[in-house]
Design brief:
This protein is mostly helical. The protein is about 50% helix and about 0% strand.
Length: about 110
């Protein structure tokens, strides 16, 4: 995935992770502790403890996805589209030689 596409996880990836967290919420509600939840869901104990703490304070809603994280892109939409197209074209289309060691126009590397 390219940064211009949002970087990090796709929407589908976020949905999968949210499903695991919500499954953890159900297991917490059934009385299981973080270590058992971590074992059953094959996640780290650190994540399970963090989820348990969030679940204790805010229920299953606290484990819902909040969407993509990170700072909003500062590029205008048109600039993002152009950047995506440039990245798809590759370095050679923009004057960089095959090893990407420097411009192919004879400038120093």
């Amino acid at each position: 995935m390219r940064y211009v596409d949002g970087g990090g996880l796709t929407a589908k990836g976020r949905q999968r992770r949210e499903a695991v967290r919500l499954e953890a919420a159900g297991l917490f509600a059934d009385g299981l502790g973080p270590l058992e939840v971590a074992r059953r869901l094959r996640v780290s104990s650190k994540s399970a403890y963090q989820w348990h703490q969030a679940w204790t304070k805010g229920g299953a809603e606290a484990l819902a996805s909040r969407g993509a994280s990170g700072q909003r892109c500062k590029l205008f939409t048109r600039c993002q589209e152009n950047l995506g197209a440039y990245l798809e074209q590759g370095p050679a289309a923009h004057g960089w030689d095959e090893d990407q060691g420097g411009p192919a126009r004879g400038l120093p590397r």
